[in-house]
Amino acid sequence: MTERSRPNLLEAVNLHVRAGTYPAVRGVTAGFAPGEFTAVIGPNGAGKSTLLRALLGLSVPESGEVRLCGQALGHWPRAHRSSALAYLAQGEELPLATRVRDVVALGRGAGEWRWGLIPTRPWTEEDEAAVAEALERTDTLRFEHRRVSELSGGERQRVSLARALAARPRYLLLDEPTNHLDLAYALDVVRYVRCEVAGGLGVVAVLHDLNLAARADRVVLLHQGQVLAAGPPATVLTPAHLHEAYGVQVLVTHVAGRLVVVADD
Ligand SMILES: Nc1ncnc2c1ncn2[C@@H]1O[C@H](COP(=O)(O)OP(=O)(O)OP(=O)(O)O)[C@@H](O)[C@H]1O
């Protein structure tokens, strides 16, 4: 089955996006399917974050378009877009004095946070159930009453993940979700992501760690704003592609059945 023929696809179609005046994304075409974990990789400045923001409709393309379920993103009502596409931005700061459960509840989009939750619509049973489910799935329920300031970096990242999942999105877009996390927490994030993907969520994650990217279903390698390679990890994470993108010689091998990339300097 081709990417185009899949239903519910989030697609970039010949997308050109400027970051400021800089042409950061130059003619990217890529499809992201539900129930699939896609890692977006590439060297610093390759256009990864710009692509992610464009997929969310947070930046306007110069040309080309983003489509959700076959329709241009701009045609979907804003409320539909923000419930279908959840975002975990790079280095996102959580409100430190706020309790975990309240932070996760923010993901429901039922209010705004200004020194406390200002409701913009009535809280429903569905909201309550979605928050409980998100806390449970990310293993944050056990510290739901603690304040963010009392949590470690890895625990905060799980709370951010819970807040995103509370929206019950179709797609979760993550910008460097494992940044600053130790190995155990980084693997945790990937494990949670895999679990949600098995339940049908589409995940697009910008990752710098190529060995974490190797655990994705698909990898999109960006270089100078363009797709250098896309497909299953073994076809993208090759010495030739990685040398072209990063200018570094690497060895690609298998350890205990896993693909492993090692710098060969
Ligand atoms: N506001 C801006 N004005 C001018 N150039 C910008 C602006 N924002 C980003 N850029 C440039 O656009 C290019 C792509 O940036 P982007 O943040 O998308 O890259 P990235 O692949 O996510 O990088 P990193 O891995 O370093 O986070 C970079 O060269 C960056 O310097």
TrEMBL record:
Keywords: ATP-binding, Nucleotide-binding, Translocase, Transport
Keyword Ribonucleoprotein: no
Pfam families attached to this UniProt entry: ABC_tran
PROSITE patterns linked: ABC_TRANSPORTER_1, ABC_TRANSPORTER_2
Family annotation (Gene3D superfamilies): P-loop containing nucleotide triphosphate hydrolases (3.40.50.300)
ABC transporter domain residues: 10-249
Keyword Zinc-finger assigned: no
A GO MF label: ATP binding
UniProt xrefs under SMART domains: AAA
InterPro entries: AAA+_ATPase, ABC_transporter-like_ATP-bd, ABC_transporter-like_CS, P-loop_NTPase
Protein name: ABC transporter ATP-binding protein
Biological source species: Deinococcus navajonensis
